[in-house]
UniProtKB/TrEMBL annotation:
Protein name: Alpha-glucan phosphorylase
Residues found modified as N6-(pyridoxal phosphate)lysine: K604
GO biological process: carbohydrate metabolic process
A Pfam family the protein falls into: DUF3417
Coiled coil: none
Keywords: Allosteric enzyme, Pyridoxal phosphate
Length: 837
């Protein structure tokens, strides 16, 4: 569908150079650095400042282009890159080889933000970077993904921290024509638009397309001059508006996004919703099916949801999107009339257990319209089961249907040139594009000397980068502080460098090191074994506490007895992150357990030989072993779902003890050859064992094999006919459910087993629709038991169910009746349950 790229350049490219436009418009250059030399040759100043190949091409002078067109060396470089690009486009992929006949309609991936490159500022943090990394890995693997998002004119805010430590926010305007995107044109060369109705008007959305290797990202933008002025700004900023604007944005993304897919003739095989923000896409999917087939809402919901995957990314229930009921009814009454759904019925989909006064929860809506639900780490699975337990009343936590896929990062986007060279030598060029079975670093060729040299070079480059940024920050603020310290000149190329960069917010505890300033000062000022610290991070504009945390660090940095050993880099973004994670020796992460859903920044240091010192939480609770890094409070298992600070003191003490007794002595433990052998052994373990596991490659393969492919199959089984019969059965169940009741329960011993029998009265219900299970909790007799019982008909609606279970006192066993139908994913799709009291 997209037309040739050359048409939209501001300059007409000389014929010899037309291939440049194709290269510049494929964001593959954000991880595949083959074409860097071209952009640098065209305009090194613009390239170094922006890392935006499309901007380079659009801002260079016509004269320079003519010169390059006649430069044989440049043409040779370009020809080689175009040939390599052609080869990439033609090459076989992991997915193509393993699953040739599946996902023909593609996976539609919805997310509110995408972090693909610093020059495409459509992200705020973890969620966006994860989505960007997932798309890049899908491209590597050949998994057919089409992504949908919003094009923000201003995106998330840019940060400056003034001398008083106050965060100042800026919203620079991004000219979309200078971003590496294209207007999406249809066969008639018309710019594709879709419309979404808001009360009393219709909002037009323009569509842009970004190419990410083999995948495409479609971006909707309301800044169409034909819209009313206030509507042009709906897609201006990310996460800054009030609730009404947020609702409008989510309607654009969900309703607009689904219409766009339809307009393009795409019938997705699977829909993957990331966070509740995009749940309206699933609603629009239902509406479209109702319109096309005349099905009712319930049937269409059942028919569509089997192949909808909802991934929850938050551990904090207050992080979910909530909308006042009044706003929902204002914005959706016309819409609901069209699908024949009453307002109350709709509101119920966004609320738990009939509590009508509650706000409308987008995560609840997403769950009610999905066929599977997953969290993003094992710890997060447990937390999510708590958070969503209201949707599954009377279900034990263990049975709440939340799966998990631990996040991963797109390794080729985060490796340093030095690390890339070493890995290429050990494992070849396409090492991150397959199933990662042969990832290792042979110690013969990749010696300790080489690993240490790699680490040193990376640290030196980081310090050069820090000095550059700090010099600018210092001059901008032009104050009386010690210039040497504030320009980073006191940083030491050879000192142990600790990095901490993330959103400044309470639960992430960026101030844990400041709980004992004198202890920290001792470590920083140690003559023989100094520690230095690099900090970065933004606080949400409304998060006053987060802003205070930034202020505390800035005040600490001003202390003259700190001797320039701690620096704070403004405006944490993808570029800053890249420099930090490549250069630091140790990455620090100190969230309050269990609030880190997963955390991904620590994964980015792995490939580069950085080590993690982190709270035993999120991904680190799965990855940590004593020979790969350090964990704070590693026996943490108790869940306290309040944002309790009760362990802060203890965790801070443990953090200092780890630094003093293990991390610092380990780093400076050089042998006679000047190498810290034990440290290097840890680096080698961490690189070899963790890099493949915490890659987006592994994550995308897991989503593909365990979710996308089986879900597509389930949806195919749900034909219109099957769905109709399911709806009728569920209606019958609904009617008869209040009549079901338990009778006598009895048992006889058979050796080590107990044969338990239970009477159940089922009225006229077909027992095939139900499942009777015998459940015992874990106790001194053994682990949890959930055993299905087999039924025999006795008389007029009475059934006798039996099963054999390990011997325990009979009162340990409780029977329960649940819906039993192998076509449904239970209890997600029907959480009815009846326990024998
Ligand atoms: C990786 C990354 C994040 C996410 O880091 P967490 O460890 O999940 O806090 C946030 N922002 C940027 C710029 C990143 O690169």
């Amino acid at each position: 569908m997209p037309a040739p790229a050359g048409l939209y350049l501001h300059w007409k490219l000389p014929g010899e150079l037309t291939g440049l436009a194709d290269l510049a418009l494929d964001l593959r250059w954000t991880w595949h650095h083959g074409s860097d030399v071209l952009w640098r040759t065209i305009d090194h100043e613009c390239w170094d400042a922006t890392h935006n190949a499309w901007l380079v091409l659009n801002s260079v002078s016509g004269k320079q282009l003519l010169t390059l067109a006649e430069d044989a060396d440049f043409i040779a470089l370009l020809t080689a890159q175009l040939a390599a690009y052609d080869e990439f486009c033609q090459s076989a992929t992991w997915f193509g080889a393993a699953y040739p006949e599946t996902l023909k309609g593609q996976v539609a991936y919805f997310c509110m933000e995408y972090g693909l490159a610093a020059c495409l500022p459509l992200y705020s943090g973890g969620l966006g970077v994860l989505a960007g990394d997932a798309l890049k890995a899908a491209s590597d693997l050949g998994v057919p993904v089409i992504a949908v998002g919003l094009l923000y004119q201003q995106g998330y805010f840019r940060q400056e921290v003034n001398t008083d430590g106050e965060q100042v926010e800026f919203y620079p305007y991004n000219d979309p024509t200078m971003l590496p995107l294209m207007p999406l044109r249809d066969d008639q060369e018309d710019w594709v638009r879709v419309a979404v109705d808001l009360p009393g008007r219709s909002v037009r959305l323009r569509v842009w397309i970004a190419r990410i290797g083999r995948c495409r990202l479609l971006l909707l933008d309301s800044n169409d001059p034909r819209n009313e002025p206030k509507d042009r700004g709906i897609t201006s900023e990310l996460y800054s508006g009030d609730s009404e604007k947020r609702l409008q944005q989510e309607m654009m993304l969900g309703l607009g996004g689904w219409r766009l897919l339809q307009r393009m003739g795409i019938q997705p095989s699977v829909v993957h919703i990331n966070e509740g923000h995009c749940a309206f896409a699933l609603l629009e999917q239902i509406r479209a099916l109702c319109n096309a087939t005349g099905m009712g809402f319930e049937a269409a919901r059942l028919a569509t949801r089997a192949a909808n995957l909802f991934t929850t990314h938050t551990s904090v229930a207050s992080g979910f999107d909530l909308f006042p009921v009044k706003l929902i009814s204002q914005y959706f009454s016309d819409y609901l009339r069209e699908v024949g759904l009453g307002l109350d019925d709709f509101l119920q989909l966004g609320q738990a257990g009939g509590r009508f006064s509650d706000d409308f929860n987008m995560s609840y809506l997403a769950i009610r319209l999905s066929g599977r639900l997953n969290a993003v780490s094992r710890v997060h699975q447990e937390v999510s089961r708590h958070i969503f337990s209201d949707l599954f009343p009377q279900w034990p936590l263990d049975d709440i249907p939340v799966d998990y896929v631990t996040n991963g990062i797109h390794t080729p986007s985060w490796d340093s040139p030095e690390a890339d060279a070493i890995w290429t030598e050990a494992c070849g060029k396409n090492r991150w594009c397959g199933s990662l079975e042969k990832i290792y670093l042979p110690s013969v060729s990749i010696s300790d000397e080489r690993l240490w040299e790699m680490r040193s070079k990376q640290r030196h480059r980081l310090i050069r980068f820090l000095r550059g940024r700090l010099h600018t920050q210092h001059c901008e603020h032009g104050n009386g502080t010690n210039a040497e310290a504030s320009c980073g000149l006191l940083l030491d190329n050879e000192a142990l460098t600790l990095g901490f960069a993330r959103r400044f917010t309470d639960y992430k505890r960026p101030d844990l090191l400041l709980r004992d300033e004198s202890r920290l000062l001792r470590l920083l000022n140690d003559r023989d074994r100094p520690l230095q610290v690099v900090m970065a991070g933004k606080a949400h504009p409304n998060d006053l506490h987060g802003k205070a945390l930034i202020r505390r660090w800035k005040q600490f940095i001003k202390r003259s007895d700190m001797h320039g050993r701690v620096v704070f880099i403004d405006d944490y973004d993808l570029d800053v992150a890249t420099e930090l994670i490549q250069g630091v020796d140790v990455w620090l992460n100190t969230p309050r357990h269990p609030w880190e859903a997963c955390g991904t920044s620590g994964m980015k240091v792995l490939v580069n030989g950085g080590l993690n010192l982190s709270q035993f939480d999120g991904w680190w609770a799965e990855a940590w072993r004593p020979d790969v890094g350090w964990a704070i409070r590693r026996d943490a298992s108790l869940f306290r779902l309040s944002n309790s600070s009760e362990y802060d003191e203890e965790d801070a003490t443990e953090l200092f003890t780890l630094l003093e007794q293990q991390v610092i002595p380990g780093f400076y433990d050089f042998d006679s050859a000047g190498l810290p052998r034990k440290w290097l052994a840890m680096i080698r373990n961490s690189m070899e064992t963790l890099t493949p596991l915490y890659s987006a490659n592994r994550m995308v393969r897991e989503y593909t094999e365990q979710f996308y492919i089986p879900m597509e199959k389930r949806r195919q089984e749900r034909s219109a006919q099957h769905t109709q019969s399911l709806v009728l059965q569920l209606q019958q169940l609904q009617k008869q459910w209040p009549l079901l009741r338990f009778g006598l329960m009895d048992c006889v011993e058979h050796g080590d087993n107990l044969e338990v029998s239970v009477q159940v009265y089922m009225d006229e219900l077909d027992p095939g629709l139900l499942k009777l299970e015998l459940v015992a909790d874990e106790s001194e007799y053994g682990g949890r038991v959930v055993m299905e019982m087999r039924g025999e008909h006795a008389m007029s609606g009475n059934y006798l169910f039996r099963c054999r279970v390990p011997i325990r006192p009979l009162e340990h066993y409780t029977p329960r009746l649940v819906v039993g139908d192998c076509r449904l994913n239970l209890p997600l799709e029907d959480p009815r349950i009846l326990w024998r009291s």
